[in-house]
Amino acid sequence: MESIGVLMACPMNSYLEHELEKRFNLHKFWTVPEKSAFLTTHKNSIRAVVGNAFAGADAELIEALPKLEIVASFSVGLDKIDLAKCKEKGIRVTNTPDVLTDDVADLAIGLMLAVLRRLCESDRYVRSGKWKKGDYKLTSKFSGKRVGIIGLGRIGMAIAKRAEAFSCPINYFARTEKPEIKYKYYPSVVELAANSDILVVACALTEETRHIINREVIDALGPKGVLINIGRGPHVDEPELVSALVEGRLGGAGLDVFEHEPQVPEELFGLENVVLLPHVGSGTIETRQAMADLVIGNLEAYFLNKPLLTPVV
Ligand code: 8YV
Question: Which stretches make up the D-isomer specific 2-hydroxyacid dehydrogenase NAD-binding domain (predicted)?
Fold first, then answer.
């Protein structure tokens, strides 16, 4: 397999990089100064692309690689891959489901607690010596709050299970109602938001779900409501979110993802009802290694003519 050309779209994980280097002829796209000249030179040898949540395989890259046979994503989200084009050209696609579910769901609960109990702000209170001048203000209880989940897939379900342990009533919105699920279904995100204290974005990013959190949803969630986003930045109309937070029309937000990562609106930096994370939902040593092993396992299976471990296309 050493002669098979594999293109890694951007830096993502050093263990993955080393393991790919051991097995394949690995090209690191981000180190290439002249991208189009590189693609012309290597278009007949690159048979696989490894992408992630930041860079994958868009139509332009797919068209530039006529020998491309598989895109293996180091992510569960597939929004950086032109799936329609892959299907059209018979290119296989894999992702990394399941292995990251616990971490992302854990982080969603962590964000809920951090926003409601002001964990980051009260940590800063201690560090800055303010405690010596008086107690920190009272915060909001998390247990028992109504949690509304947008997207009840693997991650949405794992968040629901965890929130149930905090006695939170769970409601959800999804493309279709899931009759086998005991949680209450709302047929619109606005209705779900109006009946939630905490609204969590846990669906895939598609054209349908882009800006699923808009002004109407934010207004329905209201000045006591909290938005948690562990999905993708473009799920949220970010300028609308920022103005609602700045004007106090929304109670708070816990955000792991942003519309133009790694750019984060500076208006959020001074707000204590907001917790900002640098897209670390799956960012533990254990999970990133399991994701890397899945990427490698899928590529090896493909090139050895075995069934893919986690096929999408
Ligand atoms: C990663 C992700 O942050 O799985 C996803 O969809 O967003 C993440 O797990 C990313 O792909 C790591 O490089």
Answer: 109-281
pLDDT, tens digit (0-9, with 9 covering 90-100), for 134-161: 999 999 999 999 999 999 999 999 999 9
What separation in Å is there between the alpha carbon of 264 and the centre of ligand 1?
18
DSSP state of 31: G
CA–centroid distance, 52 to ligand 1, in Å, is 6
SS3 label, residue 128: coil
Known active-site residue 127: no
| Cβ 96 vs Cβ 75: under 8 Å | yes
| Domain segments of the chain as ranges | 5-95+286-304, 100-276
Query: Of 232, 238, 240, 288, which residue is the catalytic one?
Result: 232
The response to whether residue 75 sits with its C-beta less than 6 Å from ligand 1 reads: yes
Taking each helix axis from N to C terminus, what angle separates 101-116 and 154-164, rounded to the nearest 10 degrees? 50
Query: pLDDT, tens digit, for every residue of 198-256?
Result: 999 999 999 999 999 999 999 999 999 999 999 999 999 999 999 999 999 999 999 99
Q: Does domain 100-276 match CATH 3.30.70.360?
A: no
| Domain made up of 5-95+286-304: CATH architecture | 3-Layer(aba) Sandwich (3.40)
